Amino acid sequence: MAAGSSELELFRRRWRAELAGARQGKKRRRRAAEPGGSSSCREPVSGWSSCGGVPLAAPRGGGGEEERREAGYFALARSLLDGRAPGARSRRHHRQPRPGPRPPVQPAAEPEGGGDNDLLGQLIRDLNEINEVPFFDIQLPYELALKIFQYLGRTELGICAQVSRTWKVLAEDEVLWYRLCQQEGYLPDASISDCSCWKLALQDCRAKERTLRTNWKNRIGAVSQLQYELGKVLCDVHSCDGVVIAGYTSGDVRLWDTRTWDYTAPILEPVHGSADPGPQPHVSFVRINSSLAVAAYEDGTVNVWSLMIGREPIHHYQHNQRIQALALGLEGAVIASASGFQVKVESPDDRGYWQTIAQFEIQKLVNFLHLVPDVVGSPVTIAAAEDMVYLLKAEESGKVLHSVYGLPVTCLDVSPSEAAFGVKGFGWLLNETNKILLYNLETGQCLTKLGSSLGDFTCVNLQNSPPWMLVTGNKDRRVRVYDLRRSKSLCSLYAHHLGVSAVQMDDWKIVSGGEEGLVCVWDQRMGTKLWEMHARHPVRHIWFNTHSLITANIPDEKNPRGASIMDDDLTAHRRHRGIIYAYEFSVDQLARESVLPICRSSYDEVTGYNYNIGLAVPYDNILVT
């Protein structure tokens, strides 16, 4: 750096000397051009004034315009020598110089060789080849300047783009806007070469997000019913990323993919489907993730299907008693099931063969069962059995996480590092009200106690909630949102007349379902209800993402009175079956999928109770003669 500074200072001194010599030579030529050697005339003779072989001024035809232009050239050169950016103020300053003596300039010999080797030409060539970014009084390499700009947001980059042309090029670099897209969660699977302008891509994504939020608030979208009449009464529903799985009292398990609106999804066939005579056992639980679908039956059978292979199960195992709880890992292939006092964990080995990797014997019957997500190594299971909560890890003995005699657990949910569950209290008389307890899974310590309500907490959602937040539903008909950092309630919404049965939230909205069958969508920050939808049975399942919503109304009575004995006559108890709703708020699918489901039928079924228009003769087969 010291050597570079000395060379730059030497260059400036030589250039100043050149400029001073050019001025003196021009004055001498003016005096020589005057008649009689007098210096009173100001008009120059024809010719070019030069500095070191470089033309500095064109011959003037008369007047002071060329003289002012020449003074501007010298002002520009002097500002460059002083390390300042040339501007209007500096030009005015040099047009009207302040009185006073100037500092002496050391004379230097003029360069030889004509215009090819002069300093001014070399400066112009250097400016043309420069690849560094000016940061006021220093020069930075482009890569280092780009690294600094990576810490700026959208607003700051827009401000920097207005500083200069160089900063505009830097602030609109594709690397910066691609990084912003990834940080804000847009196009996570795309690479930087997939788009020619990532700034426009980010603007389009944000515009779609605003439109989606408007559609959510105003209930603008397509609503469809996912029904399977041959399945009789709906038993359980689960969903993952828009893929819905449903189990029925007929023993059938059905899939729907709402991402592509494929209503011809296959029926997953059980192992005991065709071999065993008589009616099939009811489906007790169904679970699904990105690669597997699992169903548990009342006779203790568990079937596992792969979503990539087809309808036939890839694995099944048997419990001796009725299954009371079922859990499937969020990612990967890990299944946990509870029957009686036994908890079993199944997973495939490296060769793909399924095996029991852990089996636990506990003291009480399991009510709730969850697998901890994002666990490296052996899977971890959280089981709530009456008034006890267990932490079960493979290759280790079961650990009691919480136990208070006479205070049963009413709901449970887990995140990668914490577990939240509701505990029923003794009441106000003994100063033991119903609370939500939050435990750290690594230390096994209680982090905080939330709420104080007379009603039982019926549902809690920790895994899908924003960071440091938790949403709960209660029998006192209220939905509560808690801040885990302050252990206080942020808002309390009077939601449902018969208690809250399911709830989920994101950064701005809450969706809750009640025992009376009402689905409510709330604006969390305003604390107001946006809209609601009603069905006959209690809401047992709610799942949503940015553009879709899945709700399931599942009846409590699986064998309702008044149902027909004949298996083929299902119209008598249509009201008792339950229903699944799929809401789509996406901008891309509104125009195409707003058509009613009755108009999207495939016309390939002839049964009269499925609302199919093509009852006997499909429209596609009608020939006009």
From TrEMBL:
This is F-box/WD repeat-containing protein 8. Pfam families: F-box-like. One of its GO terms (biological process) is positive regulation of translation. One of its GO terms (cellular component) is perinuclear region of cytoplasm. One of its GO terms (molecular function) is ubiquitin-like ligase-substrate adaptor activity. SUPFAM superfamilies: F-box domain, WD40 repeat-like. Pathway: Protein modification; protein ubiquitination. PROSITE patterns: FBOX (PS50181). Its main location: cytoplasm. Residues 134-180 form the F-box domain. Residues 19-68, 85-120 are annotated as: Disordered. Coiled coil: none annotated. The keyword Cytoplasm applies. Keywords: Acetylation, Cytoplasm, Golgi apparatus, Phosphoprotein, Repeat, WD repeat. It is found in: Cytoplasm, Perinuclear region; Golgi apparatus.
